[in-house]
């Protein structure tokens, strides 16, 4: 189990704890996670964060290519020098690629500037971007329900 999965689980557990406090549900009383989310009309916090990340990414991709955020994304894929030692850094492109890899039967990825340009072309069509974000959310929800 990776650091990303552990962090996501801790975040969701903290969120559920806060929801139980709001509903005044204490120790001997048990409630399933899905029942808790339904009762509060909520969903896991990690799913909300994932959707927000992809909405922001789409917004950035639709903006002018000269803004700092677009230049930083493009600069990420320019490889200079040798790799550093140690665990790979968790960066926004790494998280976005991890989200894309969850989609079944999809050849979408974010590993090069060519992939970034392909996603930029999808982002220009808002309805297509919304569909992509929904597919990513559904894949994330399915992977959470398996655990």
Describe this protein's structure:
With 147 residues, this protein is mostly helical. It folds into two domains: 1-42; 44-79 and 87-147, no CATH class. Helices cover 67% and strands 0% of the residues. It has seven helices and no strands. It has helices at residues 3-23, 33-40, 45-62, 68-76, 92-101, 113-123, 126-146. The protein starts with a helix and ends with a helix. The mean pLDDT is 89.
Q: What profile does the largest beta sheet have?
A: none
Sum up the overall morphology in one term: elongated
> How many alpha or pi helices?
7
Q: Between the first and last Cα atoms, what is the distance in angstroms?
A: 11 Å
Q: What's the rounded overall pLDDT mean? A: 89
Radius of gyration: 18 Å
List keywords for this structure.
147 residues, mainly alpha, 2 domains, 7 helices
Give the helices and strands, then pairings:
Blueprint: H1 3-23, H2 33-40, H3 45-62, H4 68-76, H5 92-101, H6 113-123, H7 126-146
Give me a quick take on this structure.
With 147 residues, the chain is mainly α. The protein has helices spanning 3-23, 33-40, 45-62, 68-76, 92-101, 113-123, 126-146.
